[in-house]
Amino acid sequence: MTTPLAHASTSFGTRLSNWLAAFRPAPVVVNAQERLRAVVGAVIGVLFAAALSRVMADSSPGMPWLVAPIGASAVLVFGVPASPLAQPWAVVGGNTLSALVGIACANWIGDPALAGAVAVSLAIGLMFSMRCLHPPGGAMALIAVLTHATAFHWALFPALANSALLVVAGIVYNSATGRRYPHVQVAPRAPDDEAVKSRFSSADIDVVLSRYNQVLDISRDDLEKILQETEMEAYRRQLGEIRCADIMSRDLISVEFGTSLQDAWALLRKHGVKALPVVDKLRRIVGIITVADFMRHAKVDVHESFGEKLREFVKRSTTMHSDKPEVVGQIMTRQVRVASADRHVVELMPLFSEGGHHHIPIIGEKNKLVGIITQSDFVKALHRRVQP
Fold first, then answer.
1. Is 327 exposed, middle or buried (0-12, 13-18, 19+ CB in 10 A)?
2. What is the full DSSP assignment across 346-359?
3. DSSP assigned state of 135
4. Pairing with 237, which of 26, 77, 317, 324 sits 20 to 30 Å away (CA)?
5. Residue 293 contacts by C-beta under 8 Å, 6 or more apart in sequence?
């Protein structure tokens, strides 16, 4: 029997263990190539900023030409260029504004300890307000106090000059080595046909971030992309390696551009399907015709009876010229969402569940139509997969 004292002791031990575990550093998940890229970038960036700043300082002997916080800025610009804290405005604005705060405190507060503490705290507040939070900014404010930099031009040179030159080097180097910089922080909203890639929306992320109420060292668009890819990876793990070719219907019923509407409608009714792929002579898909296409063009939603209007619409014209559509190509949907035969079935899940698609034509070599997957095919495949 467990005593309350033993339970309390175990609970305390568990809490202590969990607390101590928080001090353990996280594993570095980037490979050696990315680490080398960051190391070389820091050398180039700091050397570029230092060399040009020293040239600019030659006209004013005794003036400092490089400040230590630039080293910390280089870690962000080249080590984590996607971070919101490493973006150009964060580097330039954060360092420069913090330098101004440090200079003001050095002038107005006599005690260096108090001046340093006030400078760092005010710099953080100002960077928050100006949307340029940059950790080295706190060091910039502090070094201005400790070196007793009382001249406000110190914020322009070396603080602003060093920061701007480092950013220029960061833009060139990161872009040349395959890293977006500047990195988009507020991604444009995806079009409706792209917004179905996940079960959560951009608005959901905004709500959660506002509730989280902490600064994240990752851009919002990167966070959304990581969440989407994580969800897709979980689907792949659960559904295995099922591909479109494994579940698609191969008994294809298709029509061509010039197939009459009457024949196409007869095929839909005979085979009990709701869509027919439209192919060319080489069986490459050029469109799809659905029951909805017939309904829309026949305007069956107004006054006359459904059957009467539809019969009149699909009936072949007996005259040489007709104002109404006569063949499939005149009413088919030309923008068709297709998938390759070797594509993972799980990638079609958002299209069926949220995208409003009921039929996905499957293409093979040379973009030829080889099959079609319907919602029924997809549900059957999932059902077989989860059976014990």
1. middle
2. GGGHHHHHTS--SE
3. T
4. 26
5. 331, 332, 333
Contact 207, 308 (CB under 8 A): no
Cβ-in-10-Å burial (0-12, 13-18, 19+) of 347 comes to middle
pLDDT of residue 192: 42
Looking at the 3D structure of the chain, how many domains does it have?
3
Task: Please give the pLDDT value at position 11.
Answer: 81
Cis amide bond preceding 350, omega within 30:
no
Three-class secondary structure of residue 22 per DSSP = coil
Amino acid identity for residue 307 in this structure? G
Coil/strand/helix, residue 205: helix
**Range(s) of the domain holding residue 280:** 246-386
Claim to verify: residue 64 and residue 139 sit in the same structural domain:
yes
Residue 116 near residue 130, CB atoms below 8 Å = no
- Blockwise average pLDDT, block size 10, the chain, 388 residues: 54 84 84 95 97 88 90 97 95 98 96 97 97 96 96 96 98 95 71 49 84 83 84 71 85 89 89 89 90 80 62 72 81 88 82 74 90 82 61
Is 51 in the same domain as 149? yes
Q: Is residue 41 part of a domain?
A: yes
Amino acid present at 33: Q
Residue 253 in any domain: the answer is yes
Burial of 233 (0-12, 13-18, 19+ CB in 10 A): exposed
The pLDDT of residue 191 is: 47
Three-class SS of residue 360?
Answer: strand
Three-state DSSP class for 198? coil
Buried b (16+ CB within 10 A) or exposed e, 1-22: eeeeeeeeeeeeeeeeeeeeee
The verdict on residue 181 lying in a domain is: no
Q: Biggest alpha carbon distance in the chain?
A: 101
pLDDT computed for residue 197 by the predictor: 47
Please check whether residues 375 and 250 belong to one and the same domain: yes
Q: Are both 281 and 227 inside the same structural domain?
A: no
Closest CA to 332 of 307, 283, 365, 297: 297
- Tell me which residue of 63, 140, 54, 66 sits closest to 105, measured CA to CA: 140
Q: Cα 202–204–206 angle (5° rounding)?
A: 75
